[in-house]
Amino acid sequence: MKTLPAIAFVLACAVSSVSLASTRQVTLAVPGMTCPTCPLTIRKALQKIDGVGNVAVDLARKTVTVSYEDTKARPDQLAKATGEAGYPSTIQAMPHGG
Fold it and tell me: In CA terms, which of 1, 40, 81, 97 is 20 to 30 Å from 69?
């Protein structure tokens, strides 16, 4: 029975050292997004980044809303990815604590 407290201690230490990821959301303004194929290129560029979840492109508003894990991706990294794909963007809004 002495091993039970030791196991509990080890588990407690393991759980406390794990940083929990939070899902965040950011909206990027992409003024150069002007044609129907632009969203495809932008979506592909963003989905290559580890931690990116949903990518919602609004061609009419020229925005992209991205859900991402905050321990794996950052908004500036997302903006850089769109720029490298030929569509420079700026961070427009971070409505969920980004």
Answer: 40
